[in-house]
Recover the amino acids of this structure.
Protein backbone atom coordinates (compact mmCIF):
# COMPACT_ATOMS: atom_id res chain seq x y z
CA UNK A 1 0.00 0.00 0.00
CA UNK A 2 1.49 3.34 -1.05
CA UNK A 3 0.19 6.12 1.19
CA UNK A 4 1.99 9.01 -0.53
CA UNK A 5 -1.18 10.79 -1.65
CA UNK A 6 -3.31 9.88 1.36
CA UNK A 7 -4.44 12.34 4.00
CA UNK A 8 -3.35 11.99 7.60
CA UNK A 9 -6.31 9.97 8.85
CA UNK A 10 -6.16 7.54 5.94
CA UNK A 11 -2.40 7.11 6.38
CA UNK A 12 -2.74 6.33 10.08
CA UNK A 13 -5.71 4.00 9.54
CA UNK A 14 -4.04 2.10 6.70
CA UNK A 15 -0.77 1.72 8.59
CA UNK A 16 -2.66 0.28 11.55
CA UNK A 17 -4.95 -1.97 9.53
CA UNK A 18 -2.45 -3.40 7.06
CA UNK A 19 -1.12 -6.89 7.64
CA UNK A 20 1.91 -6.06 5.46
CA UNK A 21 4.37 -3.18 5.64
CA UNK A 22 3.14 0.05 4.03
CA UNK A 23 5.04 2.80 2.26
CA UNK A 24 4.94 6.45 1.40
CA UNK A 25 7.17 6.25 -1.67
CA UNK A 26 7.35 9.99 -2.29
CA UNK A 27 6.69 12.39 0.56
CA UNK A 28 8.47 14.82 2.86
CA UNK A 29 8.32 15.78 6.52
CA UNK A 30 5.42 17.81 7.83
CA UNK A 31 7.45 18.71 10.92
CA UNK A 32 9.80 20.67 8.64
CA UNK A 33 7.34 21.93 6.01
CA UNK A 34 3.64 22.04 6.76
CA UNK A 35 2.16 20.91 3.47
CA UNK A 36 -0.84 18.68 2.67
CA UNK A 37 1.41 16.18 0.87
CA UNK A 38 3.91 15.97 3.75
CA UNK A 39 3.66 13.29 6.43
CA UNK A 40 3.46 14.19 10.10
CA UNK A 41 5.76 12.55 12.63
CA UNK A 42 2.79 10.46 13.80
CA UNK A 43 2.29 9.13 10.27
CA UNK A 44 6.01 8.43 9.84
CA UNK A 45 6.09 6.64 13.20
CA UNK A 46 3.07 4.52 12.18
CA UNK A 47 4.80 3.53 8.95
CA UNK A 48 7.98 2.72 10.89
CA UNK A 49 6.07 0.66 13.46
CA UNK A 50 4.77 -1.57 10.65
CA UNK A 51 8.26 -2.14 9.18
CA UNK A 52 7.44 0.19 6.30
CA UNK A 53 9.38 2.44 3.96
CA UNK A 54 9.44 6.16 3.16
CA UNK A 55 10.87 7.69 0.01
CA UNK A 56 11.95 11.32 0.36
CA UNK A 57 10.13 13.42 -2.21
CA UNK A 58 12.72 14.92 -4.54
CA UNK A 59 10.18 17.09 -6.37
CA UNK A 60 11.16 20.75 -6.19
CA UNK A 61 7.63 22.11 -6.53
CA UNK A 62 6.62 20.76 -3.12
CA UNK A 63 9.25 22.75 -1.20
CA UNK A 64 9.43 26.42 -0.30
CA UNK A 65 13.22 26.24 -0.73
CA UNK A 66 14.09 23.54 -3.31
CA UNK A 67 17.73 23.02 -2.36
CA UNK A 68 19.83 20.00 -1.49
CA UNK A 69 20.23 21.48 1.99
CA UNK A 70 16.45 21.27 2.37
CA UNK A 71 16.42 17.68 1.11
CA UNK A 72 19.23 16.76 3.52
CA UNK A 73 17.25 18.21 6.46
CA UNK A 74 14.20 16.16 5.49
CA UNK A 75 16.32 13.05 4.97
CA UNK A 76 17.92 13.42 8.40
CA UNK A 77 14.48 13.82 9.95
CA UNK A 78 13.17 10.70 8.20
CA UNK A 79 16.20 8.72 9.32
CA UNK A 80 15.70 9.89 12.91
CA UNK A 81 12.25 8.27 12.87
CA UNK A 82 12.61 5.28 10.54
CA UNK A 83 16.35 4.51 10.62
CA UNK A 84 18.72 4.41 7.68
CA UNK A 85 17.40 1.13 6.28
CA UNK A 86 13.76 2.19 5.84
CA UNK A 87 14.33 5.42 3.88
CA UNK A 88 15.19 6.25 0.27
CA UNK A 89 14.79 8.85 -2.44
CA UNK A 90 11.47 9.07 -4.33
CA UNK A 91 11.31 11.66 -7.09
CA UNK A 92 7.77 11.76 -8.59
CA UNK A 93 8.95 14.47 -10.97
CA UNK A 94 8.22 12.97 -14.40
CA UNK A 95 6.43 15.36 -16.72
CA UNK A 96 7.56 18.66 -15.17
CA UNK A 97 11.35 18.63 -15.58
CA UNK A 98 13.42 21.21 -17.44
CA UNK A 99 13.85 18.90 -20.45
CA UNK A 100 10.15 19.04 -21.38
CA UNK A 101 10.09 20.79 -24.79
CA UNK A 102 8.71 24.34 -24.78
CA UNK A 103 6.00 23.33 -27.26
CA UNK A 104 4.58 20.77 -24.80
CA UNK A 105 4.69 22.88 -21.65
CA UNK A 106 1.34 24.72 -22.07
CA UNK A 107 -0.47 21.39 -22.47
CA UNK A 108 1.26 19.90 -19.42
CA UNK A 109 0.38 22.97 -17.33
CA UNK A 110 -3.25 22.77 -18.45
CA UNK A 111 -3.40 19.04 -17.70
CA UNK A 112 -1.87 19.39 -14.23
CA UNK A 113 -4.21 22.23 -13.30
CA UNK A 114 -7.26 20.26 -14.45
CA UNK A 115 -6.13 16.92 -13.00
CA UNK A 116 -5.35 18.40 -9.59
CA UNK A 117 -8.14 20.99 -9.63
CA UNK A 118 -5.49 23.55 -8.67
CA UNK A 119 -6.46 26.42 -10.94
CA UNK A 120 -6.20 29.20 -8.39
CA UNK A 121 -3.80 29.96 -5.57
CA UNK A 122 -4.93 28.87 -2.11
CA UNK A 123 -3.26 28.87 1.31
CA UNK A 124 -2.03 25.35 0.61
CA UNK A 125 -1.19 25.43 -3.09
CA UNK A 126 0.02 27.65 -5.86
CA UNK A 127 -1.17 26.62 -9.32
CA UNK A 128 1.42 24.93 -11.50
CA UNK A 129 2.95 27.37 -13.96
CA UNK A 130 5.36 27.47 -16.90
CA UNK A 131 8.21 28.77 -14.71
CA UNK A 132 8.16 25.63 -12.60
CA UNK A 133 9.64 23.50 -15.40
CA UNK A 134 13.01 25.11 -14.85
CA UNK A 135 12.98 24.65 -11.08
CA UNK A 136 15.23 21.96 -9.71
CA UNK A 137 17.55 21.19 -6.83
CA UNK A 138 20.69 23.03 -7.85
CA UNK A 139 22.21 21.12 -10.76
CA UNK A 140 19.50 18.43 -10.59
CA UNK A 141 16.97 19.76 -13.10
CA UNK A 142 16.28 16.66 -15.22
CA UNK A 143 16.52 12.92 -14.72
CA UNK A 144 19.70 12.96 -16.79
CA UNK A 145 21.20 14.93 -13.87
CA UNK A 146 20.32 12.20 -11.33
CA UNK A 147 23.99 11.50 -10.61
CA UNK A 148 24.03 14.79 -8.71
CA UNK A 149 21.85 13.18 -6.04
CA UNK A 150 24.56 10.66 -5.17
CA UNK A 151 27.26 13.34 -5.19
CA UNK A 152 25.22 15.58 -2.89
CA UNK A 153 24.44 12.72 -0.50
CA UNK A 154 28.12 11.79 -0.27
CA UNK A 155 29.07 15.45 0.29
CA UNK A 156 26.57 15.58 3.17
CA UNK A 157 27.93 12.48 4.90
CA UNK A 158 25.39 9.87 3.81
CA UNK A 159 28.05 7.85 1.94
CA UNK A 160 27.75 4.82 4.27
CA UNK A 161 24.09 4.50 3.25
CA UNK A 162 24.19 5.45 -0.45
CA UNK A 163 23.16 2.10 -1.91
CA UNK A 164 20.22 1.84 0.46
CA UNK A 165 19.06 5.40 -0.07
CA UNK A 166 19.30 5.06 -3.85
CA UNK A 167 17.22 1.90 -4.15
CA UNK A 168 18.28 -1.07 -2.05
CA UNK A 169 16.09 0.00 0.90
CA UNK A 170 13.05 0.07 -1.38
CA UNK A 171 13.91 -3.37 -2.78
CA UNK A 172 14.22 -4.70 0.78
CA UNK A 173 10.83 -3.20 1.59
CA UNK A 174 9.35 -4.87 -1.47
CA UNK A 175 10.76 -8.23 -0.38
CA UNK A 176 9.24 -7.79 3.10
CA UNK A 177 5.86 -7.08 1.54
CA UNK A 178 6.06 -10.08 -0.78
CA UNK A 179 7.10 -12.40 2.07
CA UNK A 180 4.30 -11.24 4.36
Amino acid sequence: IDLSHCNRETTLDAAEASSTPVAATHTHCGALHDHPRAKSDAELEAIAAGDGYVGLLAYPHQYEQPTFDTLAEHLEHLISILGTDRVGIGTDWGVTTADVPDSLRPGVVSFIRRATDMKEKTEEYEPFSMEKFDTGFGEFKTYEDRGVIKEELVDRGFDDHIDGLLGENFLSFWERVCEA
User: Anything to note?
Assistant: The chain has a mean pLDDT of 90. The CA atoms of residues 49 and 61 lie 29 Å apart. Strands lie at 23-27, 53-57, 87-90.
